[in-house]
Amino acid sequence: MITVLPGDGIGPEMVAHLQRVFRFANVPVDFEEIPLSSDVEEDVFENAIISVQRNGIAIKGNIESRFNDPAFKSRNVELRRRLDLYANVLHCASIPTVRCRHKDIDVVLIRENTEGEYSGLEHEATKGVVESLK
């Protein structure tokens, strides 16, 4: 079972495409969809946390952050904090059968997710000046 968190904007559309690809490729998984977005009530957010903890895996669409609203609590930051998702690992590799300008690319990027700029402890002190608390 995979938890699916569709998110906002293009997120639900992208997640739907991924689910179709899995279905057509006969990937033997079931999805538990939790309608998590930036505007959901706290109980839906809690259900998302419980689902991810139970299933141990999730596919998350884009969840918007509102940087212009100081009272807004980012669902992305809360997910990272509550689930202790301390690292964001991104693997970028060229595909041998796809023509492209740069061949033999194989890079792994690892970004720390829960401290510093990604902790969500920042605010706009004055217009255009963001203060990040570490």
Structural description of this entry:
- The protein is of the alpha/beta class and 134 residues long.
- The chain folds into two domains: 1-85; 86-134, no CATH class.
- It is built from three helices and seven strands.
- The strands form three sheets. It has a three-stranded parallel β-sheet, with helices on both faces. The protein has a two-stranded antiparallel sheet with strand order 4-5. The protein has a two-stranded antiparallel ribbon with strand order 6-7.
- The longest helix is centred in the first third of the chain and has 14 residues, at 11-24.
- It starts with a strand and ends with a strand.
- 11% of the residues are buried.
- Residues 1-134 form the Isopropylmalate dehydrogenase-like domain.
- This is Isopropylmalate dehydrogenase-like domain-containing protein.
- InterPro entries: IsoPropMal-DH-like_dom.
- Keywords: Tricarboxylic acid cycle.
Fraction of residues in helix:
25-40%
Q: How are the strands of the largest sheet arranged?
A: 2-1-3
How much strand content do the residues show?
15-25%
Main beta sheet: strand number and arrangement? Answer: 3 strands, parallel
Structural class: alpha/beta
Number of beta strands: 7
Low-confidence stretches: none
Between the first and last Cα atoms, what is the distance in angstroms? 37 Å
> What's the order of the H and E elements?
EHEHEHEEEE
Tell me the number of helical segments per DSSP (H or I, 4 or more residues long). 3
Please indicate the count of domains. Answer: 2
Report the mean per-residue pLDDT as an integer. Answer: 85
Oligomer: single chain
How large is the radius of gyration? Answer: 18 Å
Overall 3D shape: globular
